[in-house]
Write a structure and sequence with these properties.
six-stranded antiparallel sheet, Jelly Rolls, Glucose/arabinose dehydrogenase, five-stranded antiparallel sheet, mainly beta, about 140 residues, binds alpha-D-glucopyranuronic acid
Length: about 140
């Protein structure tokens, strides 16, 4: 199955802004989440089949401190995912996890879990069941 890109700037944003002042993003910009607990980006991802899929978040964190986020699928119990320092705001990396999606529409919400807020979020790549490729950077 292919990897599908979902830009953060096209997702639902709560307490954050679309910006483009740091280079290296894909699409038309990235989301700068407010620096507080609870700011989030929520994507709606359409899956042809139920099964385990790879989620890869492309982000930048120009501070020294990690900015963990709670990842919730379809409103379920959140899983904490670490977003470490990337050293500079124009330096982008990915962090990934595998999760079960249902057939049809799925919501994937990434919520800041510390007072520093989340990292700058560029996009989410979703890699479907049976895919042996790595998610694209
Ligand atoms: C800086 C940076 C922003 C970033 C922010 C933050 O202001 O320019 O892109 O979002 O720090 O700490 O979250």
């Amino acid at each position: 199955a292919p990897t599908t890109e979902y830009q953060a700037e096209s997702a639902t944003i709560s307490q954050g802004a679309v910006e483009s002042n740091h280079p290296g993003y894909t699409g038309s910009g990235f989301v700068n989440l407010d620096n507080l607990v609870g700011s989030y980006v929520q994507w709606t991802v359409s899956s042809a089949t139920a099964g385990t899929q790879g989620l890869s978040f492309r982000f930048a964190n120009g501070t020294a401190d990690a900015r963990p986020m709670d990842i919730s699928i379809n409103g379920g119990a959140p899983v904490s995912l670490n977003f470490p320092s990337t050293g500079a705001w124009p330096t982008w990396q990915t962090v990934s996890l595998n999760t079960a999606l249902t057939a049809g529409a799925n919501t994937i919400r990434a919520t800041s879990s510390t007072a520093n807020g989340g990292p700058n979020l560029d996009k989410l790549d979703v890699t479907g069941p049976g895919d042996t490729e790595k998610p694209t950077a």
